[in-house]
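lol ok so funny story. i was supposed to be doing the assay writeup but got distracted and ended up predicting the structure for this chain instead. priorities right. anyway since i did it might as well share w the group, maybe its usefull for someone
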Amino acid sequence: MNGKLVRHLAPRTLRGRLSLVALTTAALLMTVLTVAFNAVTGRHLQHQADDELRARTAAVATTVDTSGPRVRIVETANDRLLDTNVWIYAGTRLLEQPPSTTARSPLAQAAVRLASEQVHACTTVRADGRRDVRLCSQNVFGRHVSATVVAALDLTPYRSSANTLLVGSLVLDAVMLGCTYALTRLAVGRALRPVRAMTDQATQWSAVASDERLGSAEHPAELARLGASLDALLDRIRALLRHERQLTGELSHELRTPLSRIVIELDWWRSRPRSAAETEATYEVIAEAAQSMRTICDTLLYEARENATFPSTSPGTAEVVPVLRRLIEQVDIPQQVKTVVEAAEPELKAGVAPALLERIVSPLLANAARYAHARVTVTARPVLGDVCIDVVDDGPGVPADFTPELFRPGRRADCTDGHDGAGLGLPLARRLARAVGGEVSHDPGHTPGARFTVSLPAG
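and the output, tada:
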């Protein structure tokens, strides 16, 4: 319960917490200094009182004659002044005492004790139950006799001075604590102003994925480190947004073909009454397209996972030739274009899952079928422990000036060529291939047409 109350009462802001810490630290320090100062002041005032008492006893001792066989008091001109609050003893026998005291008073009894000790000593006695009196003794020795002079001093003025100093120090402490808290809040507020500005700026930039960055050239070391951290965070946010847009574009690109097949089959089925066999065939096409969409989503989402690789998330091997023939059946190829699959080894296997192999080769085959004039050739061959798949068409090929942009997302050589596409297929194929240790490359020297090569680990 107490812990919850403390957390509830604690300041919510860093400025308030730092101000509270500074105030607490200053309060502890001032408490220690105040206690030490007043202790030293009390000791100093007591030493002053003792010095005054020693001076008085020394002055009275000059009036005590111990040269003879008996202690004798010599009368002086200032006898009354010297005799104020003074006791003179010959051994323990009282010779003289203040007129206002009696033998039973606390002061007289304390004076007797000091006289009996026969040493220079001081003590403090509570007189009248409300004021402190300091007594000090001094011995006067002769050849045959000795005497003791005891003087008393009221400590009320000294105690009053000490109390005044204590009150003054407490008032000064309160003023200092108030100033400390106010100045700390002001200083911390000014120090945190750049942090607040940097935070607001970073929040604004992160919302729009801006290229602006805070930098660290004009900031102190601590703010420079904060700026670098915020810049790194902004870079990660921008990369995540870019990756999200890329993944969305790739999903829409890859799902376009099976969705088109579903729409076409449904339009064909609804155009006129169909027989049971035709309806069953339509269902099979739609189911196959839906399964293809599911495979596409699983493959791309697995690849998009952070630190995920296909050997761990999608293990397995794929028989290359059956996958290529299945792709040819699924890809929309114009009737005038002939597609041929050639394989040096019919049992050739790639060390990737069949779904991933489809996603890598499908964009290459779709582009080849889209731009080919009469023929598309797909060749699978083993090369030094890898599997290479060449996709060759006899179309116009890739313009030489567009070759550097070929695998950049969203780039197309000619957006007005009458073919649909978003420029995402080739970048997706290369990214998926590289994720499993493979590669997708373009041969700029091949003519006529275009040749793309997929290199994958052998299974």
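The longest strand covers residues 131-141. Residues 8-161 form a domain with the Beta-Lactamase fold (CATH 3.30.450).
back to the writeup now i swear
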